[in-house]
Amino acid sequence: MTIRQYYHDSYRLAFSGTGLTQTLFNEQPAVILPETWFYPTSGGQPHDTGLINDVVVKEVIATGDGTIVHLMEGPVPEGDFEASIDGNRRRQFRQQHTGQHILSRAFELVGGLETLSSTLGETQNTIDLPLEGFSESMAADAEGLANQIVNEARMVAVHLVSESDLSRFDLRKQPTVYGTIRLIDISGFDVTPCGGTHCRQTSEVGPVKLLRSEKMKSDRIRLSFLCGDRALADYHSKSRLLRDLSVIVSATGDELTERIRQLTDSEKALRKELGQYRKRLNLLEAAALANELPAQGFIIRSLDGKSPEDLSVMASYLAEKTRSAGFLYSVGRGIDGILYTSSDNIPDIREILPIIKEQFGLRGGGSRSVVQFSIPGPAEPSQVELLIRQWFNQRNHQ
Q: What is the pTM of this model?
């Protein structure tokens, strides 16, 4: 069993000793130390990284028997060792973890909502709360209380107590381990069993900021949040984004939202108008094509640049206004095509779809007189044309 020194000191970033043992873990080089300040992935908090004898520690794992395994980028000689922990990463997760405790307690006090689960991520953190009783106004109040506790610079203490001593503390949640229990005590605010790394006082957490909410399943909601350095970095990033948007749309401050709404509405109107003009153009092109057809003709036309919607408008017109049958298509990454018929010799054009699918593969379907499909693969258009032409000719001679 490895002695977990980070339980007692979350700030120590360098240590040395003897007794390093080299091993393999999941066929990867690994190191076991008699004692370690490296935090292993557990309790929703990711592991530390750093160096042992100048070799990179890429992951830290706690095994079922209490051993801490340090996964290394390469082998490390046994014996004496010097180790260092990535201080920036450790600081980041101290802020996120203590901030999560504060935020979870704030939701209990403001809205009576218990944290169902929490995760500290590499870029964002989440807590899951019961959906019933949650509101955005409650979230704003909880965020405000959390930042108040941060600003009050309350002390954060660590207690190692026996199970029999737990009754002395007003715990937010009950421990899930037995024996000696580690408690994180945010003075006068929250006491919670936890094995993670934490700040010494709440002011070190920095700003606590909720980012978004997302309904999960039918009974819980997931809140994303950031604390400290990460929250400030997110603020700076969004500040730059707003500044750039303000320049692009020529609006600032409170005007920005309304200006973007106006531009969005204008774009929708223009898209609708463009769609109407495009439909007219397609009908005109279809009418011109109809004039070229004999009374009961068959056509194949490659119409590059046409969308599936364009082809549908043209085929529907030809099926209604002529006694013809045909295949209209455009070539892009694959082939977008549409088959239509108003010929008495072809009562249901859908009969051809299994034949095309068997040879080229397709996605699509339609009605008795019009079918639309897409061939995603690198099919040769001339081969598709030949297959369809042969099928139409066969039907016309039956």
A: 0.75
